[in-house]
Design brief:
By secondary structure, this protein is α/β, with parallel strands linked by helices. It contains 15 helices and 7 strands.
């Protein structure tokens, strides 16, 4: 009874966060578009860069928001489904890579330094004990259960993991972070993302399952079968995103759902990385359609299910680089385009100030 009561309170806490997500401020977005049209260029000629500036104004309520303080939140967790041989790498790589992030040696660290971003690493579900002064320890599970045999998490664990993400976003906001990016680490998490995508986006596993860490076609077909089996065993309810997340998701994916909801509740832009992050974004959008207004899709992964997932989300992507690393690498690269968008709006001359004739 006490456990059920605790989960009830947690569910209410999650609902409170969702209810704090407000619509974007359309007046600010219109003002940004009006200013963009006054600049020395044909209207709309900067394409998505103009739209990004307008969306940022709508999100923040500021014509030219200061997004200099930015962070990529890397959620880390293990997956029991790795027992089924769905990855080219062993599960031991998850804790090893977490330490690599914390020591500044991963790809996301390099790209974050270039973009002036912090890397914030959270242990939300790694199946090992980790010790590092910069690690945020918020472990909900020691790896998920094998979703091919049983549900990956309980309903309560999924909610708890989402609330960890909400709290991390809140803590970073209070530190001054005003733009977030999603990142993750978890061997086996493309399998969980494919299962989520199949259920929520209605894609067949043959389409949603890709090569992940670089598996061959025979292993991919095996992975397709495991995703089908997980869905058959658990019967996730597509009308209930938390049920889907608990049954065939992962702790780090749930944590990212919370980060997205938390960032949106603080009117901060949240830059979505690749396939795993987009699966989290899809869950977040089903919990709060308004949260989608605060998302910026960074790139189109070459993981084959990503295109259909993004079409379901309805978000245009900025970059097409055939990347499939995860970690938040694509999202951090998109920071440069966001900076360019705002800089153009701040620094370009208007037709009037430059004395240039309009069309």
């Amino acid at each position: 009874m006490q456990q059920g009561k605790r989960y009830g309170i947690a569910h209410q806490e999650l609902q409170d966060v969702i209810e704090r997500i407000a619509p974007i401020q359309e007046e600010a977005a219109v003002s940004a578009r009006r200013h963009s049209d006054s600049l020395t260029k044909p209207p709309g000629s900067l394409g998505q860069l103009e739209e990004i500036a307008a969306r940022l104004a709508g999100m923040t309520g500021e014509l030219w928001p200061d997004l200099g303080k930015r962070a990529v939140i890397v959620m880390a967790g293990d997956h029991g489904v790795c027992e089924e041989g769905v990855s080219a790498f062993p599960a031991a790589v998850t804790p090893q890579m977490v330490l690599n992030f914390l020591n500044g040696g991963a790809a996301v660290n390099v790209l974050a330094r270039q973009a002036g971003a912090e890397v914030v690493c959270v242990d939300i579900g790694v199946a090992a004990e980790l010790d590092h002064p910069d690690l945020i320890r918020r472990k909900v599970v020691y790896g998920t259960r094998n979703m091919a045999k049983e549900q990956a998490m309980t309903h309560g664990e999924a909610i708890e993991a989402m609330l960890v993400g909400v709290q991390v976003a809140k803590d970073q906001y209070e530190r001054g972070i005003r733009m977030f990016a999603t990142g993750e680490m978890g061997i086996g998490n493309t399998t969980a993302s494919a299962a989520i995508t199949s259920v929520l986006a209605g894609l067949e596993p043959e389409t949603s399952v890709g090569c992940g860490t670089g598996i061959n076609e025979a292993t991919r077909q095996h992975k397709v079968g495991i995703v089908k089996q997980a869905i058959q065993v658990n019967q996730p309810d597509a009308a209930d995103p938390i049920d889907v997340l608990a049954k065939v998701g992962g702790a780090e994916i749930a944590g990212l759902v919370g980060v997205i909801l938390g960032a949106a509740a603080h009117r901060c832009p949240i830059v979505i990385d690749g396939y795993i992050s987009s699966a989290a974004a899809l869950v977040a959008s089903r919990l709060s359609p308004l949260a989608s207004s605060y998302m910026i899709a960074s790139h189109l992964s070459c993981e084959q299910g990503h295109r259909g997932l993004m079409e379901t989300l309805g978000l245009p992507v900025l970059l097409h680089l055939d990347m499939r690393l995860g970690e938040g690498t694509g999202a951090v690269l998109a920071f440069h385009l966001i900076d360019a968008s705002l800089r153009l709006m701040r620094e370009m001359a208007t037709f009037d100030s430059a004395g240039v004739s309009r069309a």
